[in-house]
UniProtKB/TrEMBL annotation:
Name of the protein in question: Methylated-DNA--protein-cysteine methyltransferase
Protein purpose: Involved in the cellular defense against the biological effects of O6-methylguanine (O6-MeG) and O4-methylthymine (O4-MeT) in DNA. Repairs the methylated nucleobase in DNA by stoichiometrically transferring the methyl group to a cysteine residue in the enzyme. This is a suicide reaction: the enzyme is irreversibly inactivated.
Transmembrane segments: none
Reaction(s) catalysed by this chain's protein: a 6-O-methyl-2'-deoxyguanosine in DNA + L-cysteinyl-[protein] = S-methyl-L-cysteinyl-[protein] + a 2'-deoxyguanosine in DNA; a 4-O-methyl-thymidine in DNA + L-cysteinyl-[protein] = a thymidine in DNA + S-methyl-L-cysteinyl-[protein]
Gene3D superfamilies: Methylated DNA-protein cysteine methyltransferase domain, Winged helix-like DNA-binding domain superfamily/Winged helix DNA-binding domain
E.C. number(s) listed in UniProt: 2.1.1.63
GO function term, MF aspect, one: methylated-DNA-[protein]-cysteine S-methyltransferase activity
Domain of life: Bacteria
NCBIfam families: ogt
Pfam families for the chain: DNA_binding_1 (PF01035), Methyltransf_1N (PF02870)
Native species: Mumia zhuanghuii
Family: Belongs to the MGMT family.
Keyword tags: Cytoplasm, DNA damage, DNA repair, Methyltransferase, Transferase
Length: 159
C-alpha cells in the first residue's frame, strides 16, 4: 500500500485537499477542511500547493507537476490527457474531444463520463469542457465552481 500525504489550499472555489504519493499528485478533493499544520509533506505537495496558489492568483496558466492518479482506464486517461491540451482561458466541447480521439457518434457521452471521473480537477482542467452549445454542463465540484474557474481564466471583464 502506498502512503499518501495531504495538503490544503484555500481558494476562490473553497478548500482543496491535495493528495500525493511522493511521486505525483494522486487526487484533489473539493470542499476540504484544513489539514493539521504538522501533517507530513513531500516535494510534490509543496510544488502543487505553490502552483495552485499561483493559478488562483492569476499568475500561472499551466501546471508542471507529476501526476499519479490511482484509478482510470486507458480510455479515461486518454480523455484526461486531452483535457490537459485545452489552453488556459479556452473551452472545448465534449464532442470536440471525442472527435480528437476519433470516437463514433456517441463519443461525447463517453468523454463526459471520463471527464466526470477525473480525480485531479483544476490541475487536469475538466472545468474547460462545455456542452455542444457552449453551456455549462456537469462538474463534479458543482457548476458554481466550474463557472468561477472559467471566469478566473478569462480574466476581469472590461465592461
Amino acid at each position: 500500500m502506498t502512503v499518501t500525504t495531504t495538503a490544503y489550499v484555500d481558494s476562490p472555489i473553497g478548500g482543496l485537499r491535495i493528495h500525493s504519493d511522493g511521486t505525483g499528485v494522486v487526487a484533489i478533493d473539493f470542499g476540504a477542511d484544513p489539514v493539521e499544520p504538522d501533517s507530513p509533506r513531500d516535494a510534490v505537495l509543496d510544488a502543487a500547493v505553490a502552483q495552485l496558489r499561483e493559478y488562483f492568483a492569476g499568475e500561472r496558466t499551466t501546471f508542471d507537476l507529476p501526476l499519479a492518479p490511482r484509478k482510470g482506464s486507458a480510455f479515461q486517461r486518454a480523455v484526461w490527457k486531452q483535457l490537459g491540451d485545452i489552453p488556459y482561458g479556452e473551452t472545448a466541447t465534449y464532442g470536440e474531444i471525442a472527435a480528437r480521439l476519433e470516437l463514433g457518434a456517441f463519443g461525447a457521452r463517453a468523454v463526459g463520463s471520463a471527464n466526470a471521473s477525473n480525480p485531479i480537477p483544476v490541475i487536469v482542467p475538466c472545468h474547460r469542457v462545455v456542452g455542444a452549445n457552449g453551456t455549462l454542463t456537469g462538474y463534479a465540484g458543482g457548476l458554481d465552481r466550474k463557472q468561477t474557474l472559467l471566469d478566473l481564466e478569462r480574466g476581469p471583464a472590461l465592461f
